[in-house]
Amino acid sequence: MRKQLTTWFYGPLKSFLPVSFVVSYLSGGFVAGIFMCSNCSLDEPLGYLLISLIIGILSIFTGGFPPANEGGVGPALNSWPYIAGCWACIILVRLVIKKRSKEFEN
């Protein structure tokens, strides 16, 4: 039973963990851009999306520490808590989907 459980858990996750980390890097930067946008107004949702996309892409290039503004000057923001949170959410969703598909087959 234990061997079957470890095979089920680690087998599919060997290839999924690196892929989910890359996806969570961009999505975590995007979420960080939404929450860290200091000069955005609720009148322009397109501004939120644009700045979040820029912060998401910059977090990939800067190792999770994008600059505070899009011009590249000023202190760096820390988007690692958002990246880690997105990574955990992606992995949990994958495990729930995998578990439900196993239950559906039986």
Explain what the structure shows.
With 106 residues, the chain is mostly helical. The protein has one domain. The protein is built from 3 helices and no strands. α1 (2-35) crosses α2 and α1 packs across α3. It starts with a helix and ends with a helix. The mean pLDDT is 80.
Could you outline the blueprint of secondary structure elements for this entry?
Layout: H1 2-35, H2 45-61, H3 80-105
Helix pairs in contact: 1-2, 1-3
Key phrases:
106 residues, mainly alpha
Main beta-sheet strand count, sense and barrel state: none
What best-fitting shape do the alpha-carbon axes yield? elongated
Low-confidence stretches: none
**Strand coverage percent:** under 5%
Order of helices and strands: HHH
* Fraction in helix: over 70%
Number of helices: 3
Any idea what the radius of gyration is?
A: 18 Å
**Quaternary status:** single chain
